[in-house]
Amino acid sequence: MQKKLLDILACPMDKHYPLEMIEFGVREPDVVVDGVLLCSQCGRYYPIIDEIPVMLPDNLRNRKEDMSFLEKWSARLPENVVHGGKPWSLTG
Question: What is the mean pLDDT of residues 7-13?
């Protein structure tokens, strides 16, 4: 994902802007390969996987993919995302 996209992205559920980004893997200075976008308003997280931000509303999200993402990156994600993020978390 191009970092400059952060300037125009908003949460698809509550339209909150701006979103926070945590980078796990970067290719070139301005391209995030893996990471997460966080909405401080509603507590939702949106994975960035292979440069693509997965910004779908809850009813269109793939639970299995989200759980796999949380398990893979749990050591680098904030505790509130791992254990209380929406739409799913590792403890709920």
Answer: 96
Per-residue pLDDT of 22-45, as tens digits, reads 999 988 889 999 999 999 999 999
Residue 53 lies in a domain: yes
Distance CA 43, CA 26 (A): 24
Total structural domains within the chain = 1
- Structural domain contains residue 39: yes
The pLDDT of residue 29: 87
Instruction: Output the CA–CA distances (angstroms, integers) from residue 80 to 4, 30, 55, 60, in the order listed.
Output: 26, 27, 19, 22
Token pair recorded at residue 44: 């939702």
Strands 31-38 and 45-49, bridge-based pairing: antiparallel
Structure tokens at 52: 């693509």
